[in-house]
Design goal:
metal-binding, Cupin domain-containing protein, mainly beta, RmlC-like_jellyroll, 4-stranded antiparallel sheet, metal ion binding, 6-stranded antiparallel sheet, Jelly Rolls
Length: about 120
């Protein structure tokens, strides 16, 4: 199956996970096509100063792959600057958040898959 970019569905969300500002979530793979293995496969664009608030991953895990821009990830209590090419992995009850601290949109791929140990 090919899903052309003009057919991808985008939604603007505010204060995601009690974060700040707005983010645009563009679905790459719809949840029904994840076949029960996950709940998110999206390209996310955070406006300057916007964030996804602190949240945990206990029965699932999340991977962010930074495509462009600059930000800060709170990785289980430790703030780390991130930029293009960086990958963030959060699992095993750990917590994280991400904030756009740059001067342009922060874009990344986010995938949440269920932990099937």
């Amino acid at each position: 199956m090919i899903n052309k970019k003009e057919n991808l569905v985008s939604n603007v969300r505010e204060c995601v996970q009690n974060g700040k500002g707005k983010g645009t979530f563009t679905t790459i793979v719809p949840i029904e096509d994840l076949r029960g293995h996950g709940r998110l496969f999206s390209r996310i664009s955070l406006e300057v100063g916007s964030s996804i608030g602190m949240h945990d991953h206990t029965e699932d895990f999340e991977v962010y792959c930074i495509l462009s821009g600059n930000g800060v990830v709170n990785d289980n209590g430790k703030n780390i600057e991130v930029s293009e090419g960086d990958v963030i992995y959060t699992a095993d009850g750990r917590v994280h958040s991400i904030e756009n601290t740059g001067d342009k949109e922060l874009e990344f791929i986010a995938v949440v898959l269920y932990d099937k140990k």
